[in-house]
Write a structure and sequence with these properties.
Layout (H helix, E strand, L loop, with lengths): L44 E3 L4 E4 L2 H14 L3 E5 L7 H19 L7 E7 H4 L6 H11 L4 E6 L6 H6 L15 E4 L2 E5 L5 H5 L1 E2 L2 E4 L3 H16 L2 E3 L5 E2 L12 H36 L1 H7 L3 H5 L5 E9 L4 E2 H12 L5 E6 L6 H9 L3 E7 L16 H18 L6 E6 L5 E2 L3 E5 L8 E5 L5 H5 L2 E9 L2 H16 L1 E3 L14 H10 L4
Parallel strand pairs: 3-4, 4-5, 8-17, 14-15, 15-16
Antiparallel strand pairs: 1-12, 2-9, 3-6, 5-10, 6-7, 7-9, 10-11, 12-13, 12-20, 14-18, 16-21, 18-19, 19-20
Length: 515
């Protein structure tokens, strides 16, 4: 009585219709949880909850990054939108240099590798930029360091020539954030920039000692790296030998190659995990005789039974990959009456499909978003300065719709507000009916907005857990964020600082697909 896989197509039938499916089977072996349908799409990694640590502050995140870089022995793999140019970022680069140096001095021929993936447009902004920060590493350790700069295939031709710096970032970005050290993986929405290490609130989860997950994300970053521009020691860039060029080559060919590379990573990991699952499940059924025969499996047998499952959700619409969107829509569709969904985004600009699902289904929603003062664009120069006002306008429209449908009880908006801070946290926590603790969270780079779904490369993980202590950690994380918020009411929009100029209202519908 596994949920049938046709249900996964539900989100693609627009407008979305809630799909009623049979309740999950309580008799399935392997402590089957109700989210096992996700493994029809992506690899499922069963781990022990003791390997999962939820961090809460930028400072904690920064310190962890430094410690992890310093103690890495085999690999450091980092994917981010960009690397900042301040002192804190320089310190990270210095840590990398130190570790590379140590590895060179080690007697054995060093296998230590550093692979960094950033966005080309964001990483090239200004005279001093991510590229100039990393070139010294490339020059000193050419054999061990790889810096890939992803360039969206949608920025090409005349558009590419005419659109100025900063504005070119609206077309499409490498938005994935993964920070990986040997077998430890940090998933976050935070970029490698001083704000994210000091006073820009985000979310961060550390998966310790999880080789399969680390291998998966290494392969994913490698795959995107292979279709990206490679930074050279003289600050030029070039594609790998024989690779289609993202903006000079044929767009369709490029996107097909990229799709194949990424899907290959997802599908091979899925097959690997299914075999591993069958093997460990099988051997635990057969008793210890099988384990002792296999020798190498002996350690497998001693692993604690997993009580936590990790599902990587990838979204790369330019390459025709929409897994994250399908899973998110299905989760929203499936959430039953009295389930509670806490959804948070630094930039409230939900896609029409997500809005329809929130307004048209039965679960309770608590949506946390940035108040204008903690929006990352607050006080920005030029046109960007109007972006917080555009978000206020989008929020007001959504709130009016909620009221019009008499859903104010079921769907609540809350604004994060904290003096001296900005807000960039994204994801969701799902509480099943009658439960005070969440059993599922989504954490990673997507914002649930148009850009995340249609323009950028995104990755997050669904973490599903049966373990009370981990559920408690996730619950505390949610509470801490929501504590710094006030509930939105009609009065919110009557405050003078919420006045939205007419031109912003007129322009917002035209530009909302770009931010």
């Amino acid at each position: 009585s596994h949920r049938s896989s046709w249900l996964l197509l539900a989100p693609l039938l627009t407008p979305p219709v809630p799909v009623i499916t049979a309740p999950p089977c309580s008799l399935c072996p392997e402590g089957a949880h109700r989210f096992q349908w996700i493994r029809n799409l992506v690899p499922e990694f069963g781990i022990s909850s003791s390997h999962v640590k939820v961090l809460s502050s930028p400072a904690e995140f920064y310190e962890l990054l430094k410690v992890q870089i310093k103690t890495a022995k085999q690999r450091v793999v980092m994917a981010s939108l960009y690397l900042g140019t301040g002192l804190l970022e320089q310190e990270l680069v210095d840590c990398l240099e130190e570790t590379l140096e140590k590895s060179m001095q080690a007697k054995a021929s060093s296998n230590f590798r550093v692979s960094i993936l950033l966005d080309y447009t964001r990483g090239s902004r200004g005279r001093k930029n991510s590229r100039t920060m990393l070139i010294p590493l490339l020059q000193r350790f050419p054999e061990q360091v790889r810096v890939s700069l992803f360039h969206t295939p949608n920025l090409r031709g005349l558009l590419r020539l005419l659109i100025p710096e900063r504005f070119n970032e609206t077309i499409g970005l490498q938005h994935i954030k993964v920070y990986l050290f040997d077998d430890n993986v940090i998933l976050s929405g935070a970029n490698l920039s001083d704000l994210y290490f000091t006073n820009r609130q985000d979310r961060y989860v550390l998966l310790q000692d999880s080789p399969e997950i680390a291998d998966f994300f290494t392969e994913l970053v490698d795959a995107i790296g292979d279709v990206s521009l490679q930074l050279q020691r003289d600050d030029t860039v070039q594609m790998m030998e024989g690779m289609e060029h993202p903006y000079q080559g044929d767009k369709v060919t490029y996107c097909e190659i990229a799709n194949q590379r990424v899907m290959e990573v997802i599908n091979s990991a899925r097959t690997r995990q299914e075999l591993l699952h069958a093997k460990t499940f099988h051997s635990s059924q057969q008793g210890s005789s099988l384990i002792s025969q296999q020798g190498s499996q002996a350690s497998e047998g001693l692993k604690p039974e997993p009580d936590t499952w990790i599902y990587p959700l990838i979204q790369m619409k330019p390459f025709g990959i929409q897994i994250d969107e399908m899973v998110t829509e299905t989760l929203l569709t499936e959430a039953e009456r009295d389930a509670r969904i806490y959804l948070t985004t630094g930039y409230f600009n939900l896609t029409q499909a997500y809005m329809d699902l929130i307004l048209g289904t039965r679960a309770e929603y608590r949506i946390l978003l940035a108040s204008p003062e903690v929006n990352g664009f607050f006080g920005a120069k030029g046109v960007a300065g109007a972006i917080p006002a555009a978000y206020v306008y989008i929020e007001h429209q959504f709130y009016s719709e909620v009221c019009y449908l008499h859903q104010q009880e079921r769907v609540q908006l809350q604004e994060y507000s904290r003096a001296g801070w900005t807000f960039h946290a994204k994801g969701l926590w799902l509480y099943l009916p009658g439960s005070d603790l969440p059993c599922l969270t989504l954490i990673g780079s997507p914002n649930f907005g148009y850009r995340s779904v249609h323009r950028d490369l995104e990755a997050q993980v669904a973490i599903v857990t049966e373990n009370k202590a981990l559920q408690q950690q996730l619950h505390r994380e949610q509470e801490q964020l929501y504590l710094c918020s006030g509930v939105v009411s009609s009065a919110t929009f009557e405050q003078p600082n919420r006045y939205v100029k007419l031109w912003v209202k007129l322009v917002t519908p035209l530009i909302k697909n770009f931010f």
